[in-house]
Amino acid sequence: MSSNDSRRRKLRESGRSLVSTVLSWLVGNRPARSMATVFLAAVLGLAVAVGVGTTIGSDRIAALVVETWTGTEFHVEVVVATSLLVGVGALGAAVTSGFLPTFALVASVPFGVGLARYGTVYAVEQFTMVVSLPEAIADGTGAALVVGLPLAVLGYLVGASLRRIAGSTRGRSGPRFRPG
């Protein structure tokens, strides 16, 4: 075997290793759990849209977030909801070990809030307009990216760190307790 063949084989193997590493990071090591998480995220997003649309409304939620963000008025419920989303992301990352399922889970909530705008009426000068489904989907997608992505990254980092810490202490903690 020539040295060129050996180099090509090593390059192919390292390329496969890189692809499998990236896929593992994106999708996770447990594809069935990842798919279940994405399905759960879709259901959660629709449930949030219905819940927000029939109760408080997405405009009120946006006002609460802006007031908290700008410091004009502090709303503890915004901080609690944000913390819960990071916690859900950490749990999702610990369970699936994939970023995309974690992102889907966390981003489903802001997506649902944006989707809740569907059918609402707003005024532009002397005209009244109704939010169409494409506009509501665009609003939800924007909210998922602007709000959900940073929270998903933070949740993923926390969950992956916890998973790594739990995995590194398994072998050194002595005999495992087994009830019964």
From TrEMBL:
- Show where the DUF8071 domain sits: 27-168
Q: Which InterPro entries match?
A: DUF8071
Q: What keywords are assigned to this protein?
A: Membrane, Transmembrane, Transmembrane helix
Judging by the UniProt lineage, the source's domain of life is Archaea
Task: Give any Pfam family that matches.
Answer: DUF8071
Where are the membrane-spanning stretches?
38-58, 78-96, 103-123, 143-162
Under which name does UniProt file this protein? DUF8071 domain-containing protein
State the species of origin: Natrinema ejinorense
